[in-house]
Design goal:
Helices cover 41% and strands 24% of the residues. It is of the alpha/beta class and 303 residues long. The strands form 3 sheets. Strands 3, 4, 5, 6, 7, 10, 11, 12 and 14 form a 9-stranded mixed beta sheet that branches. A 3-stranded antiparallel beta sheet has the order 9-8-13, with no helix packed on it. A hairpin with a 4-residue loop joins strand 1 and strand 2. Helix 1 packs across helix 3 and helix 1 crosses helix 4. The longest helix is centred in the N-terminal third of the chain and has 28 residues. GO terms for molecular function: DNA-binding transcription factor activity; sequence-specific DNA binding. This is HTH lysR-type domain-containing protein.
Length: 303
């Protein structure tokens, strides 16, 4: 096997990993037509058909399955070894593009980013506020911190934490509009949405209940949504850690204490399981380490 065949074999394994030439092309910076021609060349070199090609599916032949089983893992091992050498010896440089909700940027990403740029002067970091992965590829994001599991294909995700949520409102609001006695009462109240959720989910009296959101006020910032709740705009769903801080200050009152609210979650998302640049991998690992003890930072929202 020559170097050309080895390259084509790697591209073939990547096409299989990502489910097609178009998807693989976004990860390895090689056009889909080039990948297709490379696999055809590899088939001629091997004298065996590796793929059943048609417009609707990307299906391996028996020979294709055998080559993937034998070589894909070896390429992964080689990639990890290569990345390990780079992490040890190469000076980190280049850009890191990150998207995350505002509280994540305030208390997690920015402190890490500042120290990271001091330690690695040739790395530039760019942060955008977003709570999902809708524009992950359009904005060329390297790492995304999100509050819902992504459904975007070809992304890898790791759950960073899970935290209880609670409902809160100001005393002024409750005096003017009354205090809800059950989940159904929320449909008659002014609700504040702090993200892109379309519904809130609860457990009440051993029964699952859902409130579809038609918010009086929505803002893609937990900090601003909580401020609005403190000003009497309506009822907000927020992390229990954060609500406790506001309750201590008498800025908010917990609503429907006996009801179990849905869990809040945080995920870290990136675009390739093995070929992530060393600078991105190092920054990713720092985020994971910072959240080892859970989302303690959420209690700082009330400071």
């Amino acid at each position: 096997m020559n170097a050309k065949d080895l390259t084509h074999l790697y591209w073939f394994c990547q096409a299989v990993r990502h489910g097609g030439f178009a998807a693989a092309s976004e990860h390895i910076a090689v056009s889909a037509p080039t990948l297709s021609r490379a696999v055809s060349s590899l088939e001629r070199s091997l004298g065996e058909k590796l793929l059943h090609r048609n417009a609707k599916q990307f299906q391996l032949t028996a020979a294709g399955e055998q080559y993937v089983a034998q070589f894909s893992g070896q390429f992964d091992t080689l990639s990890r070894s290569w990345q390990g050498i780079n992490n040890q010896h190469a000076e980190l440089s280049g850009d890191i593009h990150i998207s995350c909700p505002e509280p994540f940027a305030d208390f997690i990403v920015q402190p890490i980013a500042i120290d990271f740029m001091v330690a690695h002067p040739k790395v530039n970091i760019h942060v955008k506020f977003a709570a999902d992965t809708e524009r992950f590829f359009d904005d060329r994001i390297d790492l995304a911190m999100v509050t819902r599991a992504t459904k975007t294909p070809y992304l890898v995700q790791k759950m960073l934490f899970e935290t209880p949520l609670s409902l809160g409102a100001s005393r002024d609001y409750l005096e003017k509009h009354g205090t809800p006695k059950c989940v159904e009462d929320l449909n008659q109240h002014r609700l504040i949405a702090a993200n892109t959720l379309t519904a809130w989910h609860f457990e009440e009296n051993d029964e699952h209940k859902r409130v579809m959101l038609n918010p009086r006020y929505s803002v893609n910032s937990l900090r601003l949504a909580t401020q609005a709740a403190c000003k009497g705009v309506g009822i907000c769903l927020l992390p229990a850690h954060a609500l406790a801080t506001f309750v201590e200050k008498d800025a908010l009152t917990q609503v429907l204490k006996e009801v179990t609210c849905q869990k809040g979650r945080g995920y870290l998302v990136w675009s390739d399981r093995t070929l992530i640049p060393a600078r991105v991998a190092k920054f990713r690992d720092l985020i994971v380490d910072a959240l080892t003890n859970g989302p303690v930072f959420l209690s700082k929202l009330g400071q």
